[in-house]
Amino acid sequence: MLGSPLWGALADTKEGRRKKIMIGLASVSLLCVSSLVPVALWAPKHMQFGLALTASCLSSFSGGSVGSLLDAIVVEQVPKNAYGRLRLWCAVGYGSSAGIIGLAMLYVGSDITWLPYVTHFAPGLLCGLVALSLMFFLEDGEKKGSSSSDVDDNFRLSVQGEDKDETKKGLLDEKSDSGFLDKISRVPRTLDMFLFIIVVFICGSCMGLVSTFLFLFIRNELQGDQLVMGVSVLFTCALEVPVFYFSENILNLMTADWSLVISLVAYIVRFGLYWLLAVFRWNAWLILVPELLHGFTFALMWCSVVAKATKAISGLGLTNFAVGFVTGVLTSGNVAGALVGGALLNHGVSYLWIWLGSTYMMGVVTVLWTLKVSWSFFGASHQEEEGDLFL
């Protein structure tokens, strides 16, 4: 929540600093995660929670920010709206590993003994070390001609009709000479961006509610086991991969605002299906059906958010901060959703009412965001028509 915008801002203050920050953060995160095993096995019981919480917070503050910096690299290196075609590999790794871990927990167990902890933690640490070693080979630089900022600059130059090479050099010098606070002051502060941030926060709240309590819902309400939980994550990523892959086509066809409308509608359907499962207590394996909608509730939503955020700061050289900021907003919503859901469950509110309330909440948000997008779209079209008549 705090680390992503902070480290993103630090990476934007000086060119070439991002790679060093990523390597340092990943190293600290792996060290913190690896400490969880000895804490669980050998630390005194009265100290276990405090030590595990400290290690987890440090790991999230450092390692959680690596993802947003990697996202920023991808946004800068690939053509416009093609971010999803690389981001999908994260979903592949996440989904495939979850099924394996579910099987391991089912057959090895989850007691606090040496074998389960090695079985569950060792593969993750190994993958983390491999990822850390690959970071040394990353190109930490903006690929000219492909990023949104360069597209914006080229458009401005073509409109101005000036000498492209000299003017572009001036623009790049202007970017490098401007301080971070000066760049931040140029970011648009409009009602559209304010509403956009609220929608991102609410989507994060829904993610927090699902990611925190879905497994408890499967186990306590639907009587499912660890295998169902692991396979549910696999299904969660099943549609996520193709949606990430085709997100470029969707965004080019519909724009980021209308793509967000689709994501919000998908949340309504997803929560509605959870509610039906809570009412009728059907077979636990039926949880796999709503999990397929994660492709729209997360993959399409996140590609739309990144596209809209990076477009807002186009030409300012704030890609790391922009991606880190929306990551922080999404994570803040995640925390809020988890806390609210936990408070409701502790006060005796059943999953039936939680899923029903979430369905209604997303319905209201969807209607409001759709009205806003429609107003902007038809208002712009009307102004364009008036301009043509005037000309």
Topology (elements, then pairings):
Blueprint: H1 3-12, H2 18-34, H3 36-42, H4 45-77, H5 84-108, H6 114-135, H7 148-160, H8 164-177, H9 180-185, H10 191-221, H11 226-238, H12 240-280, H13 288-291, H14 294-312, H15 319-346, H16 351-390
Helix pairs in contact: 1-4, 1-15, 2-4, 2-6, 4-15, 5-6, 5-11, 5-12, 7-8, 10-14, 10-15, 10-16, 12-14, 12-16, 14-15
Query: What is the ordering of alpha helices and beta strands?
Result: HHHHHHHHHHHHHHHH
Number of helices: 16
Low-confidence stretches: 143-177, 381-391
Q: Kindly state the percentage of residues in helix.
A: over 70%
Number of strands: 0
Rg from Cα: 23 Å
- The 3D shape can be described as globular
Q: How much beta, percentage-wise?
A: under 5%
Structural class: mainly alpha
Largest sheet: none
Average pLDDT metric: 79
How would you describe this structure to a colleague?
The chain has helices at 3-12, 18-34, 36-42, 45-77, 84-108, 114-135, 148-160, 164-177, 180-185, 191-221, 226-238, 240-280, 288-291, 294-312, 319-346, 351-390. The protein has 391 residues and is an all-alpha fold. Helix content is 83%, strand content 0%. Helix 10 (191-221) crosses helix 15 (319-346). It is built from 16 helices and no strands.
